[in-house]
Write a structure and sequence with these properties.
This protein has a four-stranded antiparallel sheet with strand order 3-2-5-6. Strands 7-9-8 form a three-stranded antiparallel sheet. 15% of the residues are buried. The radius of gyration is 20 Å and the shape is elongated. A hairpin with a 2-residue loop joins strand 2 and strand 3. The longest helix is centred in the first third of the chain and has 9 residues. The protein contains four helices and nine strands. The protein is an alpha+beta fold and 159 residues long.
Length: 159
């Protein structure tokens, strides 16, 4: 199998049309055509030269986009929030491409975050198998006592 072949759902996601999971649903629902033929089988391989249509729309490959964004506190690191809170993608509503955050920062945390439309890059940066080290710096108001530092070094068990 040639390295240039990729799964159909991955091609759809990389085009920016929708997420890979939603692409899988569209395929199984018969809403995807490959070179004019309706495809319903997941895992179908496509070549770069193949024509893909989703719900009647011919897909074009998007240019890759990478954004470094300083996320303020009280902003959700997500593309949507069912409670109506501000999400990081709200700052980029004028973009015509679908972007998503690489990794997460807590709601109360501010810091540098990458947003992109590049699914392969996101997977490389976030999947544990690639062992990409991340460094976090926490600033505190006040001081930690020696026994509190030792407890943090051991780790804290949360619910």
């Amino acid at each position: 199998m040639s390295k240039e072949l990729e799964r159909l759902q991955k091609r759809i996601a990389n085009s920016g049309y929708t997420s890979r999971r939603k692409a899988e649903t569209l395929i199984t629902e018969g809403k995807v055509k490959l070179n004019g033929e309706t495809i319903t089988e997941l895992g179908t391989k496509v070549k770069p030269s193949d024509n893909v249509e989703v719900e009647g729309v011919k897909l074009e490959q998007e240019d890759k986009l990478y954004i470094l964004f300083y996320k303020p506190a009280q902003v959700i690191t997500s593309v949507s929030d069912d409670r109506g809170r501000t999400v990081v993608t709200d700052y980029f509503e004028d973009l015509e491409t679908r972007i998503y955050p690489v990794g997460r920062l807590d709601y109360d945390t501010s810091g540098l975050l990458i947003l992109t439309n590049d699914g392969e890059f996101t997977n490389l940066m976030t999947h544990p198998r690639y062992k990409i080290k991340k460094k976090y710096v926490a600033k505190l108001k006040g001081y930690l006592m020696r026994d509190e530092v030792k407890q943090l070094e051991k780790g804290i068990q949360l619910e």
